[in-house]
Design a protein that fits this description.
Blueprint (H helix, E strand, L loop, with lengths): L1 H10 L6 H10 L4 H34 L6 H44 L5 H30 L1 H16 L4 H44 L1
Helix pairs in contact: 1-2, 3-4, 3-7, 4-5, 4-6, 5-7, 6-7
Length: 216
């Protein structure tokens, strides 16, 4: 048991080791379907965390553009911290989506291969129907995840630009310059949060469907 856990830990982050990881997990009773559901759940949680970080950065920037006196250095450092936290949270989202896609591909390949092992045509037909249904729903989910993921980088780029500009221009003129870009960034962050909400809803629907199929 300890050896299986060690193998899983060593190979989890390496694409070439995923097959070894899935095999090790199956030996202790954890199958790809369960891993997929767990990873979708983890991705949903990382998206929720990312939403909070981006929202925090937006609120910090709102305070900054309305700055009317005080210590600009402190305001800059707080915004920089929010940017770094948003960057880390976005990285977690991307890593989790990659893991979701990897285990889904492994699950669907295995499912497709096992169709050839049926001797009962009716059972084979029913299993194939469920496979295609699950693939369609997963495809919708993955597109939703990737769509919101794609919107993170432009927001991060804009936040970074603001942080860099402030770093070397801690004065009222710098704040005024940032104020001119604020409305556009605000819209981008809100669109990102809305897309993540749709992806989270799709994740919930997919998890529910997978659990129903498990029961049935």
């Amino acid at each position: 048991m300890k050896h299986l856990a060690l193998a899983a830990t060593l190979c989890l982050g390496l694409s070439a080791c995923q097959t070894v990881y899935y095999s090790a997990m199956e030996k202790v009773g954890v199958h790809k379907r369960e891993i997929l559901v767990d990873r979708v759940e983890a991705t949903k949680e990382s998206q929720q965390n990312s939403q909070q970080e981006f929202q925090s950065a937006l609120e910090r920037l709102t305070t900054l553009v309305n700055f009317d006196g005080g210590e600009l250095q402190t305001a800059y450092e707080q915004l920089n911290d929010d940017y770094e936290s948003s960057l880390s949270a976005a990285s977690d989202v991307s890593n989790n989506i990659d893991k979701v896609e990897d285990v889904a591909e492994a699950l669907f390949d295995e499912w497709q291969d096992e169709l050839g092992q049926y001797s009962n045509a009716n059972l084979k037909r029913e299993s194939e129907k469920k496979l295609k249904q699950t693939q369609r729903q997963f495809s919708k989910l993955l597109k939703s995840m990737r769509r919101s993921e794609a919107k993170m980088q432009p927001v991060l780029d804009s936040l970074k630009d603001n942080v860099l500009y402030l770093k070397h221009n801690l004065n009222a003129q710098a704040v005024a310059a940032i104020r001119g870009e604020f409305d556009s960034l605000k819209v981008d962050i809100q669109n990102l949060i809305n897309d993540m909400n749709r992806s989270i809803a799709d994740s919930n629907a997919f998890i529910e469907q997978m659990n129903q199929n498990k029961v049935n």
